[in-house]
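Review form for a predicted model. The reviewer records the input and the model, then writes brief findings.
Reviewer: anonymous (R2)
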Amino acid sequence: MIQTESKQILLSIISIAVLIIAFVGVSYATFVTVFEDSQINGISTGTISLKLKNENGALSMENAMPVSDADGMMLDDNNVYEFEVQSMLSAQTTLNYEIYVEKIKTDKPTISNSDVRFYLEKYEDNAYKSTLITQNPQPFIPLENNSFLGSKKGSMILYSGTLSNMTSHDKEIKDSFRLRMWVAQDTVIDSISRDFNIKLNVVAKAM
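Model under review:
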């Protein structure tokens, strides 16, 4: 009789453990980001475009657990999204440009703006270096109005820069970037699966 009771207690403990694991398994935040190439033509001095380097055209993080900013900034290559901003510029031309992210509407529950972190690096002097706006990882901070260059109200600017061609002939100029995104460490996890979908864009004006 004592042995039977022991088995029942052991089985009960195992069952509770399984339930806890199952609950945690479905309560991880689902974090999916979708990037699409964005191109703006018709600039009289050249054309600027955003070129995606990832073969699958998207960065998808499912069942992502919250991590610290220090860990997020060091995410491995599987969680890094690389892209280029490039332009075939006319001679003696400089373009001011902005890289911004635009949220894609969805019927599904979403992660709040404050629970997402963005960290953008630019390739300079043979190394990737942090950029000014997200030098410290930032949550999604929507613009209150359209920017001067054309970034949309409600979107978030990640980078402001210039492309310049001071030669006497047309020339292709490009800047290379890599973006990391993660769920903030203090995010409260519940039993609801949540998404966060964005589109990556570039806009520019000639000086």
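Findings: Confidence is low (pLDDT under 50) at residues 15-45.
Further findings: The helical segments are 2-27, 69-72.
Recommendation: see findings above.
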